[in-house]
Amino acid sequence: MSLVLKNIQKSYPEFDLNLSFTAEKGELLTLLGPSGCGKTTTLHLIAGFIAPESGALFVDGDEMTYTPPHQRKLGVVFQDYALFPNMRVFGNIAFGLRMHGWTRERIEERVRYLLDLVRLRGYEERIVTQLSGGEQQRVALARALAPEPRLLLLDEPLSALDAKLRRDLRLEIKRIQRELKLTTVYVTHDQEEALAISDHIVVMQAGKIEQIGTPFELFNRPLSPFVADFMGMSNRIQGRVLSSDSGTILLETDEGHFKVNYKKTLAKNSRVTLVFRPEKCSLLSGSGESGHEENGIEGEEKHRKKDEHTDAHTTNMFTGKVTSCEYQGEFSTVRIATEKGEYTVKIQISSVMETGLSVQVYVRSDNLWILEREDNPETVV
Q1: Which of 18, 145, 223, 225 is the most interior residue, by most CB within 10 Å?
Q2: CB distance 140 to 104 below 8 Å
Q3: Domain covering 235-372 assigned CATH 3.90.25.10 in the classification
């Protein structure tokens, strides 16, 4: 079943909700954004708990804008699971089926199937209040799936769990969603979670959609400063276009010259914002030793030479001083200051870098991205 929202609008004191998007049949679409941006409100609009002021909502071509929740045939997993504490696991999963008039034989068969699906075989008589958080989450998912819903809606289903369990259970949710080929709308504020499970992601801010795309597009090709920041592109440099041809943009910035692989042609002197991810940098100390164990100096030197501009400008590199270095196990977060700005680099190093150390930051052309200014001349594709 597909889901289509067309110009759905709802006003609140904090923001005006204005939404148009589509979840294709069998895909997992995630609503991603900070707390208070309208994600859960959007889910409640889809479920029918809230009525929009205008616009239309369609499920598999059938308009359901003002259809009561119980007639929409949707499965919902709430943030707190909302299990019935006075019922055992079997009773929780079977509750909706009894309400729909299923026979006992069909109910027992369906519950057994779902317990196998969520890997809780043998839990029928367990007391739900004595289950772990992860087990309760699986029961809530099985209950939502029990009446064979047309769509599955998940509202921050993993937020109450610890980090390791969240990683394990998001894989389970993805596996079940894929196995059932069930169109699913998933709400989260966790970027890593959204990237891991989604086919497409809707990034929201203050009731509006900032960008819709695949995990790769949002992670590597943000279209606004908000999306760039929210998806972790914390490094920005303001720049001006010197030349633009053959899929390469040459920029002049306060930190030097940068060459960027870019499909569009930009007008000369256009003002842009150059962004890059902390983990996409290489770090060289003043002595020329590499601080990036994954790439190493040899491989990066080849890319650096390839990026050098023909007029003797050295591109894609600038010098600064280490202001802090936090060891975080798999990687270290190094903060670097120049005369013009501050930047964050995440690298793999075997020891903490000394504060005040002079370093060179290098970013390959294909790891840079351009945010265009709205007041620039039109771009040419």
Answers
A1: 145
A2: no
A3: no
